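Dear Dr. L.,

I hope this message finds you well. Following up on our conversation about the binding site, I have prepared a predicted three-dimensional model of the protein together with S-adenosyl-L-homocysteine. For your records, I am including the exact sequence and ligand specification that went into the calculation, followed by the structure tokens. Please feel free to forward this to your student if that is useful.
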Amino acid sequence: MSDMVTRLSERIRTTGPLTVAAFMTEALFDPKDGYYATKDPIGAGADFITAPEVSQMFGELIGLWAAQSWLDMGSPERFQFIELGPGRGTMMSDALRAARTVPGFLDAARITLIEASAALKSVQASTLGTSGAQISWSNRLEAVESGPSIVVGNEFLDCLPVRQAIRHGGEWHERLVGLENEDSTKLVFVLGPPLGVDTDLIPANLIDLPDGSLVELRPGDQQILGAIADRFKNDKGRALLIDYGPAISEQGDTLQALRAHKKVAPLDDPGNADITARVDFQSLTQYGRNLGITPYGPVEQGQFLISLGIESRAAALIQAAPDTKATMARQVWRLTDPEQMGTLFKFVCFDSVGLPLPPGFSAR
Ligand code: SAH
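The resulting structure of the complex is given below.
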């Protein structure tokens, strides 16, 4: 049995079952045994693969998007270029290479990477070591110096801890993680107390579901958007968040654990599998609106990348190196095809007041 399971079961025996969010926090970020704290999980040989790791074109288009956004903000002499959860640093590295073509952008950018994992910070430092850019790290968005900002994040929101609620006896209850019995170390889901005032956090279209229904609450999304809205209050800013999930709030348990590209049960081996949950884009854009930042999207990834010019980028790369033709075609397909990442993954943008329409989005 792993140290993590021993510790979690002792904690549950002493202080009672944990919320799903507390379980996720331990499993992913415990400084000693947490999944992100200890591993470099991203890539073909690891547990999961992300869009920037599929193709350099992904980060390049994000870089051009950021450069256009900087121009839209009036080319501030100095601005914060912030990435949330940069993983291996690949997206930022590709973005900086592409954005270099826009005069002044790189000189103006102060780059900060928001990263919780010490293991991934060191991977990022080596990926970006040759970029020539001045880079710093922070654990929290709130701690980054104020000023005009461009914020980007791919597959960051999906690993923020979620709470789950179950409808029981006509009321919403917290779903908790407990033990199968007093003497066991097997983790199981158990029904917790009524949500009380937190029932307000349930999306309006899901509030009246029948007994047995399950919904997820995403307190981390609210916290991140709150920090973004604070930054955008006195300075211009634009944020691009990319993740997987439905456009309209849906019921259902979406906790997913991945290990070596295979799904495993979320409670089975905490610390050794990546645990994520789908992002609820309807609630996300609504939070943004409530906070006074202007939401755009969600736009499906395939549509977004095509409108930003992924096909002509692929054509240019093929022209420069004709033997990459099949590889490039395959990468475009993986990123944009509806059966691949093209529709499940979506882009949303949040703007400070008064900026023009962001690239890749249409007016509402
Ligand atoms: N954006 C990268 C990595 C996605 S994995 C890519 O697309 O490849 C999620 C990343 O977010 C990891 O780098 C993880 O360590 C980081 N992360 C997750 N939750 C975090 C938090 N609360 N604070 C800071 N970093 C976090």
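In brief: The pocket of S-adenosyl-L-homocysteine is lined by residues 36, 42, 50, 52-53, 85-87, 91, 114-117, 120, 154-156, 159 (CB under 6 Å).

With kind regards,
A. P.
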